[in-house]
Amino acid sequence: MKLCHLDDLPEQNARGFDPSREGQDTVFVVRQGNHIYAYKDLCPHYGDTALPWRKDEYLDPWGGTIVCAAHGAHFEIATGLCIDGPCMGESLPKVPVQIMDNGDILVAIDEPHGGGESP
User: Fold this and answer.
1) Alpha-carbon dihedral of residues 15, 21, 24, 28, nearest 10 degrees?
2) The CATH number of the domain where 9 resides is what?
3) Where is each Rieske domain found (predicted)?
4) Residue 10 is part of which domain span?
5) How many separate domains does the chain show?
């Protein structure tokens, strides 16, 4: 499923998406140069807790780690591994991501209601 174009995601930044149209962001992507990392927007400390404190605010102020605003946990961008906080050693659920030659960013997501697109 197409989320956006690479040019729509500023470098050293993150953006949330609602690909299943559930009314809230369920997936987010982080851009570091030409690398894109995608995760489900769920903290492993409490599985139903979204990470950002406001829309698209997934990273610390320096853009170095992903942060859970509810628990203060910090995660490595490239791996999703919790390196500080109450879920040390656990990881964010990865979402398969692909950058197409034309710059489109695609993800493979589980469709909770069946149907849907895949990359």
Assistant:
1) -30
2) 2.102.10.10
3) 1-106
4) 2-107
5) 1
